[in-house]
Amino acid sequence: MALIKQLTKTLLLLSLLALAGCSIDLSGSPHQPPQAIDRSALTPSESPAWASLKLSGHLIYVEVPRQIVQLDLVSGQKSILFDAPDNAYIGAVQASPDGKYMVIAYAPSAEPTLQSFNTDLYVMPTDGSAAPQVLLKRTRPKEDFINPVWSPDGKYIYYSHLMFDLNGANQDAKFTYDLERIAYPRGQPEKILGSASWPRLSRDGTKLAYVSLASSTNSNDLYIANADGSQLRLVMPAGSFFAVDAPVFSPDGQTILFSAVGAPQLSSLSWLDQLTGVQIAEAHNVPSDWWRVSVDGGKPERLTQVNGTGLYADCAPDGQYVAFMSVTGLFVMRPDGSNLVQLDNDLVGGTLTWVP
Question: 0.85 cut: is pTM over it?
Answer without folding.
Answer: no
